[in-house]
């Protein structure tokens, strides 16, 4: 913005979301001691607004209220106003989201919370319109009412704030009530999921519909453990419907955030790194089970999207792409029949429109979101061609339309790099790279891991949460691209990714870094008294509460990731301390995760790992040699959710207990398949290994 009328303190920030608000007439602060001190000194309540750069309704509320001069004046007169990027500060987001949900029964972004000067919440909601609408009061009405209550009903305000704060403290004080875990918990969780499952369109619940990859992954682990075909059907139907729906980008690859309807047609168009990371793994696991070509296409296209659109030159992965372009939601992604015909030609357009449900009437505000509306076989019959001809025509049209779409004004991209989200994507690309023979994906995973470990590490070895390349701000933060102490979820996600990189490359450096970060995670976040892990470290700033996060929402909770990581390292390193720490997390949530399985998919997967027989595969051989590659191919193309793999190169010494005494057999690469460290006789042939793994 050239020659802006207003400039506030957010101009000194690096977060793209905060910078979007840097020229509002609102006297915004970032979350900082000076803002809290101002509230205390002036005895003003705090208005806390939390959102993120790809949030459509955050942009709407900014245009309607935060850019409005009279509204901004009211805010400045009555409150100390703080703006927070939830992606940079998940600690604040989780505290105040729980408060809003407790007060209103629902939550979302933009989140609007009113706090006492010491940070205790007492009133809140989400989006407020400029005028009263559908029973929601106007934002200015809320501002004046809250300010009046703060002046005239001080005792009630502070009593409410204290009650809410006490409620928020609960997760930090949870204690283990029972010490027994059994597979009946897993079976009961699947029964509960079947109650929520949409057996016609896939997914859970009605609308809006979220992908829930963690829940689908848990269903597939249940199938692997028990052969439960209902569990597999839940995963397969959902993945098929999503891949066919408008939630998937049929031209550019990758998934949008969620569907506003029950049939996966109309998405909220933003694309999040964390969604695509998790869905890559979920589709990969489904492909390992079924070998469905449609899953493979989704995988390749989504990997291509991530490498093309979401990868920084330095190696890390960007965070999000916006829902809006040119101020219009979804504009970049929608089509008219005339546009398509002009680009691909009349005959090709007829085929394309039949297959992707394109019509003159449209399915989204008079235009068309592409979605699979037919089959290639059915279209072939309609147009009098062979199925192969139709498939070739569709592929050609997709490419031409993609090239044309690239000339449009693209949605904004949030180019900050987050440790946690990078960990999720590194993990996904490490698995996909080896399984799908995508060396570009594996290399990208290693580049990102190197970036985080070098550019997002503090001098003492601890991690930063966020990185934004210099030059985006105008103040003191522009020269500090890596900032904010990392949270539990950052350590746990990155550590899990490094373990996956070890199992993909057998480079001991990754395992060494994973072990180092695990020690730091336990020191910084572990609760030696009650078990589990706090979200913030021991040297983090003091907030109103110190929470433990267990619920898997759109992103797995820190405790779920920690449990999964610790269990995998426990087997690789034969470390019972790690196993006990993971077990304590599961015991804390024993009852809750069964009652509410859609909120604990990743944690249920960890429980499955704990309760399933531990399977280890020790390989001896040169990972680049043909005989070793044949054995690796069998392992990587099989769905083995509870199996860890380690490799010892010829003449290499190793400290891994699993690899002790393992060597070549008659000069050939060998695989030792073990259960709880009791190993069968080694095999050197791929077929023999496949037979062992199928038992």
- Report the C-alpha radius of gyration, rounded: 26 Å
Strand order of the largest sheet: 1-3-2-4-5
Strand count, sense and barrel status of the largest sheet are: 5 strands, mixed
Classify the beta-strand content into a percent band: 5-15%
Question: How far is the first residue's CA from the last residue's CA?
Answer: 64 Å
Given the C-alpha coordinates, what overall shape results?
globular
Determine the number of helices (DSSP H or I, runs of at least 4 residues).
26
Mean pLDDT, to the nearest integer, reads 94
Secondary-structure class: alpha+beta
Low-confidence stretches: 472-477
Q: What is the count of β-strands?
A: 19
Question: Helix coverage percent of residues?
Answer: 40-55%
Produce the secondary structure layout:
Blueprint: H1 16-20, E1 28-29, H2 33-42, E2 46-51, H3 56-66, H4 69-78, E3 80-85, H5 90-104, E4 111-115, E5 121-125, H6 139-152, H7 154-168, H8 183-196, H9 213-226, H10 229-244, E6 258-259, E7 267-268, E8 271-272, H11 273-290, H12 293-309, E9 320-321, E10 324-325, E11 328-329, H13 337-344, H14 346-356, H15 376-383, H16 387-405, E12 413-414, E13 417-418, H17 419-435, H18 439-455, E14 464-467, E15 482-485, H19 488-505, H20 508-525, H21 558-573, H22 576-588, H23 590-595, H24 601-611, E16 615-620, H25 626-636, E17 643-648, E18 670-675, E19 678-679, H26 686-694
Parallel strand pairs: 1-3, 2-3, 16-17
Antiparallel strand pairs: 2-4, 4-5, 6-7, 8-9, 9-12, 10-11, 13-14, 14-15, 16-18, 18-19
Helix pairs in contact: 4-6, 5-7, 9-10, 9-11, 9-24, 11-12, 11-17, 13-14, 14-15, 14-16, 15-16, 17-18, 17-19, 18-19, 19-20, 19-21, 21-22, 21-24, 22-24, 25-26
């Amino acid at each position: 913005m050239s020659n802006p009328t207003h400039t506030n303190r957010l101009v000194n920030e690096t977060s793209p979301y905060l910078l979007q608000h840097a020229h509002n007439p609102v006297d915004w602060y970032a979350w900082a001691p000076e803002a809290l001190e101002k509230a205390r000194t002036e005895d003003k309540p705090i208005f806390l607004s939390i959102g993120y750069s790809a949030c459509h309704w955050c942009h709407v509320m900014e245009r309607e209220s935060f850019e409005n001069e009279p509204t901004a004046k009211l805010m400045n007169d009555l409150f100390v106003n703080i703006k927070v990027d939830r992606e940079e500060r998940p600690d604040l987001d989780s505290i105040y989201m729980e408060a809003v949900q407790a007060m209103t029964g629902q939550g979302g972004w933009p989140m609007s919370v009113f706090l006492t000067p010491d940070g205790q919440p007492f009133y809140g909601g989400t989006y407020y319109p400029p005028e009263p609408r559908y029973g929601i009061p106007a934002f200015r009405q809320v501002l004046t009412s809250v300010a009046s209550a703060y002046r005239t009903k001080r005792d009630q305000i502070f009593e409410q704030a204290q009650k809410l704060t006490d409620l928020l403290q609960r997760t930090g004080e949870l204690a283990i009530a029972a010490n027994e875990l059994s597979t009946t918990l897993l079976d009961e969780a699947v029964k509960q999921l079947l109650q929520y499952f949409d057996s016609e369109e896939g997914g859970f619940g009605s609308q809006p519909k979220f992908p829930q990859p963690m829940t689908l992954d848990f269903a597939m682990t249940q199938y692997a453990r028990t052969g439960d075909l209902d569990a597999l059907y839940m995963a397969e139907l959902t993945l098929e419907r999503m891949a066919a729906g408008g939630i998937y980008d049929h031209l550019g690859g990758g998934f949008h955030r969620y569907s506003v309807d029950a049939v996966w047609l109309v998405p909220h168009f933003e694309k999040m790194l964390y969604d695509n990371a998790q869905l890559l793994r979920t589709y990969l696991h489904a492909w390992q089970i079924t070998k469905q070509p449609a899953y493979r296409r989704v995988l390749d296209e989504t990997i291509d999207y991530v490498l093309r659109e979401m990868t920084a030159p330095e190696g890390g992965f960007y965070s999000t792409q916006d829902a809006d372009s040119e101020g219009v939601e979804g504009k970049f992604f929608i089509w008219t029949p005339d546009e398509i015909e002009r680009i691909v030609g009349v005959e090709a357009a007829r085929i394309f429109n039949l297959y992707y449900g394109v019509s003159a009437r449209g399915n989204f505000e008079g235009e068309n979101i592409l979605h699979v509306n037919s089959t290639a076989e059915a279209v072939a019959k309609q147009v009098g061609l062979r199925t192969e001809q139709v498939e070739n025509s569709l592929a050609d049209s997709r490419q031409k339309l993609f090239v044309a779409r690239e000339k449009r004004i693209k949605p904004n991209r949030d180019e900050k790099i987050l440790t946690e989200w990078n960990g999720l994507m590194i993990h996904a690309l490490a698995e996909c790279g080896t399984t799908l023979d995508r060396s570009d994906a594996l290399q990208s995973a290693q580049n990102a891991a190197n970036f985080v470990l070098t550019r997002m590490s503090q001098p003492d070895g601890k991690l930063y949460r966020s990185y934004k390349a210099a030059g985006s701000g105008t103040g003191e933060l522009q020269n500090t691209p890596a900032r904010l102490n990392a949270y539990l979820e950052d350590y746990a996600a990155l550590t899990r990714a490094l373990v996956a990189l070890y199992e993909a490359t057998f480079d001991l450096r990754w395992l060494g870094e994973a072990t180092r970060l695990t020690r730091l995670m336990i020191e910084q976040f572990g609760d030696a008294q009650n078990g589990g892990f706090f979200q913030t470290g021991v040297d983090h700033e003091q907030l109103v509460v110190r929470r433990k996060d267990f619920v898997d929402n759109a992103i797995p909770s820190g405790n779920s990731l920690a449990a999964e990581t610790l269990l995998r390292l426990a087997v690789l390193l034969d470390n019972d301390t790690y196993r006990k720490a993971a077990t304590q997390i599961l015991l804390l949530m024993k009852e809750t995760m069964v009652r509410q399985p859609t909120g604990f998919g990743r944690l249920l997967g960890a429980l499955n790992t704990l309760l399933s027989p531990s399977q280890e595969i020790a390989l001896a051989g040169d990972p680049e040699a043909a005989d070793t590659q044949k054995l690796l191919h069998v392992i990587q193309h099989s769905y083995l959710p509870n199996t860890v793999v380690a490799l010892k190169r010829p003449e290499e010494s190793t400290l891994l207990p699993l690899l002790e005494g393992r060597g070549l057999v008659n000069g050939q690469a060998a695989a030792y398949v073990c259960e709880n460290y009791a190993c069968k006789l080694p095999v050197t042939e791929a077929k023999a290994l496949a037979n062992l793994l199928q038992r």
